[in-house]
Amino acid sequence: MTTSFTSALKRGRAFLTPTNSSTTIPRLDNGAAKAPEGALFPKVDPAVDGEDCDHDCESCSIKYPAKFKIDEDDKLYGNVNAWATHMLVATGKTDWVRDVSDEKGSVMEAIRDCGHEPNNGKLMLSASNMPLPQEHHFPSDPTTILLLPSFTIIENVSPDTVPTLIEQHISSAPTSTTPFPWTIPTSLSPDISALSLDPSLATQSNSSPPRPISSSPSPLTTRPCPHRYLILLCSQKTRDARCGQSAPLLRREFERHLRPLGLYRDLQDERPGGVGIYFISHVGGHKYSANVMIYRRGEIGVVEGNGIDDRDGDPKSTGVGHLGVGGGDGKVESSQVDASNGVIRGTGGKANGHGKTKESVGMGEGNQCIWLARVRPEDCEGIVRHTVLKGKVVKPERQLRGGFDRQKGLVSW
Hints:
Elements: H1 3-16, H2 20-23, E1 33-34, H3 46-49, E2 85-90, H4 107-113, E3 123-128, E4 143-148, E5 152-157, H5 162-170, H6 190-196, E6 221-224, E7 229-234, H7 241-258, E8 264-265, E9 275-280, E10 292-304, H8 324-327, E11 336-338, E12 343-345, E13 358-372, H9 380-390, H10 396-399, E14 400-405, E15 410-411
Parallel strand pairs: 1-15, 2-3, 7-9, 8-9
Antiparallel strand pairs: 2-4, 4-5, 5-6, 7-10, 10-13, 11-12, 13-14, 14-15
C-alpha cells in the first residue's frame, strides 16, 4: 500500500468519523441528530457576509395588503413534523381543493388510498403548479412528479401506477436523513468512485449496500431535475387567503433578484442549474405566512489525486469544494456565482500536494431543506444572496421553522 493511498484513506476515514462536537448531539434511530436552535444552519455574519447582510432590501417596492396580519409571537424553530421524502405533483394549478388528496381520480387521492406506504419514512405530499403533460385532460390522466430530496422527475405517473411509484421509486430514494454522498478520491477504489458520480447508486451509509434497483418493467420514466435550487411557496388560498396573496408577490420579488444573476428559471425553462420557483399546496403553519421551503443540491464528483487541500488537510476543501460549497456549510471564500448553473465557486487553493487535480463535478442529490416562515417581499434579496446560494439564514430567530442538512446529519425534529 503506497504512502499516498494510506494518507488518503486515513483522511477519508477521519472525515466520515463523527467529531467530538457532533457526538454531543444525541442521535435518532435513523442516525441523524436533532439540532438545537442555532446549530442546523449558520446565521449570516456581517464580518463575513457584508455589513448589510441582515438588512431588508431597500429597493423593494412590493408590499403585502394592509390587512395582511400573521402570528409574530410563537416560537417557530423545531415545530415542524419529520418527513423523509417530499413529492410534488404537477397539476398546472396554483390553488386546489382544501385537502388535495380529495381531488377525485387524482394521483394525490391514489397516494392516500392505494394501501401502500413508503418503507423509508414519511412522505410529504404537495400539489404544485408544475405544468401538466400536453396529453393530460382529466385528473386520472398521467402526470409528472418531482421527488425530493433526490431531485428526480418521474413521468407518466397515473393513479394506477402509484403502487409501482411507491415501491420502485419512493421507497428506494434518498431521504432527509440519508447521509449525503461524499467525494471519494479515485485512488481509493475506481468502483467506489464511480458510484459517487451517480446519486442513484450512492450508498446510504458507510456500511449499507447500494439501494436495490428493480429489474421489473415499469411504465414510469425518470430524469434528473435540471435545477440546482428550488424555492417552494405555499399558494393555497382555499386554506388561507394570505397564502394566495403572498405567493405571487414573493415570486415576483425573487425573480427580480435572480434574473440579474442569470439564475431565474420559469416553469418551462429547463436549462441546467439555476433556481426553480414552484407554488405548492398547504404545508402547515399558514398563520405564519409566507412559508418558503428552499431545497439546495450538493455537489458530487471525483477528485483525481489525493483529494486533499494543502491549506488544512481537509478532504472537503478541494479546489471547487464539492461538499463545502454545494453542501452548504456557508464557508465560501471570494465567491462568485457561475450564471450558467448557479454554482458558487471559491478561490480554493492547491488541490493536492503536487498542485494537480482533475475534477469531475456535477449536481448531486438535495443536501439541505431550509424551511422559513414570516417571509415578506423585502426579505427576498437576502434569501437569494445568503440562503439560496450559501445555505445561511438571515433572520433565524424570527423565520426559521426547521429543515435538514444531510451532510451534517442534522434535522430540526
